[in-house]
């Protein structure tokens, strides 16, 4: 099979460092989403909601894998934790305990809103390879999980 050079193969130096930094920002956000959904699944008793939240967690886990692979391909070191984003998981956990399911779902939807904004912000300032990765791989699934969470939140009375 012939080797086909991709744009990722020629991104080097400062451009690669900037791309890896951006990808790690995305990765920390996705790791936080996974933590947050896991916390919510553990705190919510309704089986339908638990199953739906688990599916959304899996969606974010898939994005974690995609991001780690891309970072490694660029020669970077993937972030190992959500960092400051991890605090969001604690807020959702506390909200589910104190304020109930509706508040937890509202917080999860807010996290999904943040994810959409994260992927859309400054997209025009990113290199072509990163733009394509976000537009083709990350953003469509983020939009889907956002819409699903919004529907879930509005279905709970």
H/E series, N to C?
Answer: HHHHHH
Number of beta strands: 0
Total individual domains: 1
Kindly report how far apart the N and C termini lie. Answer: 56 Å
Alpha-beta classification? mainly alpha
Query: What best-fitting shape do the alpha-carbon axes yield?
Result: elongated
Query: Which radius of gyration do the C-alpha atoms yield?
Result: 17 Å
CATH superfamily: Ferritin, core subunit, four-helix bundle
Which features characterize this protein?
single chain, 6 helices, 78% helix, elongated
Account of the 3D structure:
This protein is mainly alpha-helical. It has a single domain, classed as Ferritin, core subunit, four-helix bundle (Ferritin, Up-down Bundle), CATH 1.20.1260.10. Helices cover 78% and strands 0% of the residues. The protein has six helices and no strands. It has helices at residues 7-10, 13-43, 47-73, 86-98, 101-120, 128-155. Helix 2 runs parallel beside helix 4 (86-98). The longest helix is centred in the N-terminal third of the chain and has 31 residues, at 13-43. It is elongated. Residues 1-10 have low confidence and may be disordered.
